[in-house]
Recover the amino acids of this structure.
C-alpha cells in the first residue's frame, strides 16, 4: 500500500501504540496522520516554518510532538488538530524529539550538540545534557524513564542519567555519524546505525560493543527492535530493508522493492502472526509504503 500526500521528503514515520495509525513528518513543513487499514490521510498539522525532522505520538495518544529545522518543538492536540504548545530552541535546528514513557517530559537533540529536557505541562526547559561535540541526531528515553540514549555526528553514543543529567557511559566504535541509537525493549542493550554502513549492538551494563552487523551496501538510516528483543529491522540508502537475528548477529532476510534510499522505518506486530513495516524513500519522496509480512518469513 502506498500513502501519498506529502509534497517533499518524508523524514520520519511512527506507528501508534495500537498500530491503527501512522504519524509522518516531512520537509514540506507538515505532520500528517494516516489510517493504516485504509491508507487514507486523516489529519494534517501545519505551523512549522521549516522542514519537520520528527513527529511522535504521546504515550496516551492524545497528542503529537514534533521538531523542526525552524528551531521549535510543537505539541499538537490530535482530537482538535490544534497546536497547544510551542517550545523555542533559539535558532538551532532540532533533529529528534521523544516523550518520556509517562508522557510528562520531552527530550530533544539539537544541531548545537546539546540535549534538552522539557516539562510538557509547563513548557519549561528543565535540563541540558552536555557531552557531545557535534549534532545530536537522536535522543530517546529508556522504558523506565530513568536514562536517555543519544547519538551524534561526533560518531559516539552517550548514556545519560535523567535525574542528575550525568553522562553515565560513552560508546565508541562507529567511524561515521551515528544516525540513531535506541534501547532494546528489555532495556539491556543499545542498538545503533550509522553512515559507516553498519549496525552495532552494545551491552549497557558492561559498556562495550557486542556485535557488528554488516551487510548493507550503503549508509544505514534507521533501525529498530522487534518487541521480543531478538530481531532487528533496518533500512538503508542501498534501497533495502533487512532483518537480523540479534543472538546470531546475522542477516536473516533482505526485503527489496524500494526505488530509492529508504530514509526511515517502523514496525508493528499484529496478533503475533503478521508484521507491518512502514517506510519512506528519499528519491520518490512523496510516498510512504506499508508492507505486510507473515512472521514465519523471518523465523
Amino acid at each position: 500500500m502506498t500513502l501519498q500526500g506529502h509534497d517533499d521528503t518524508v523524514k520520519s514515520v511512527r506507528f501508534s501504540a495500537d498500530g491503527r495509525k501512522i504519524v509522518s513528518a516531512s520537509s514540506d513543513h507538515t505532520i500528517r496522520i494516516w489510517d493504516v487499514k485504509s491508507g487514507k490521510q486523516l489529519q494534517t498539522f501545519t505551523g512549522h516554518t521549516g522542514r519537520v525532522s520528527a513527529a511522535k505520538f504521546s504515550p496516551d495518544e492524545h497528542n503529537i510532538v514534533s521538531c523542526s529545522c525552524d528551531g521549535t518543538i510543537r505539541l499538537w492536540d490530535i482530537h482538535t488538530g490544534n497546536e497547544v504548545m510551542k517550545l523555542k530552541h533559539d535558532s538551532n535546528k532540532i533533529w529528534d524529539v521523544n516523550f518520556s514513557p509517562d508522557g510528562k517530559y520531552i527530550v530533544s537533540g539539537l544541531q548545537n550538540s546539546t540535549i534538552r529536557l522539557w516539562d510538557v505541562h509547563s513548557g519549561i526547559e528543565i535540563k541540558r545534557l552536555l557531552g557531545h561535540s557535534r549534532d545530536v541526531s537522536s535522543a530517546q528515553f529508556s522504558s523506565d524513564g530513568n536514562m536517555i540514549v543519544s547519538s551524534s555526528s561526533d560518531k559516539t553514543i552517550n548514556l545519560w542519567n535523567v535525574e542528575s543529567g550525568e553522562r553515565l557511559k560513552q560508546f565508541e566504535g562507529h567511524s561515521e555519524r551515528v544516525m540513531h541509537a535506541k534501547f532494546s525493549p528489555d532495556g539491556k542493550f543499545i542498538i545503533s546505525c550509522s553512515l559507516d554502513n553498519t549496525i552495532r549492538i552494545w551491552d549497557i551494563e558492561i559498556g562495550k560493543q557486542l556485535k557488528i552487523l554488516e551487510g548493507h551496501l550503503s549508509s544505514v538510516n534507521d533501525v529498530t527492535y522487534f518487541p521480543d528483543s531478538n530481531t532487528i529491522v533496518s533500512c538503508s540508502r542501498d534501497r533495502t530493508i533487512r532483518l537480523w537475528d540479534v543472538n546470531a548477529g546475522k542477516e536473516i532476510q533482505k526485503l527489496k522493492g524500494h526505488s530509492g534510499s529508504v530514509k526511515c522505518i517502523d514496525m508493528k506486530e499484529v496478533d503475533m502472526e503478521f508484521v507491518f513495516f512502514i517506510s519512506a524513500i528519499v528519491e520518490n519522496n512523496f510516498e510512504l509504503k506499508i508492507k505486510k509480512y507473515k512472521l514465519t518469513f523471518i523465523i
Q: What stands out?
A: The chain has a mean pLDDT of 91. The CA atoms of residues 180 and 276 lie 21 Å apart. The chain has no helices and 28 strands. The domain at 2-220 is CATH 2.130.10.10 (Methylamine Dehydrogenase; Chain H).
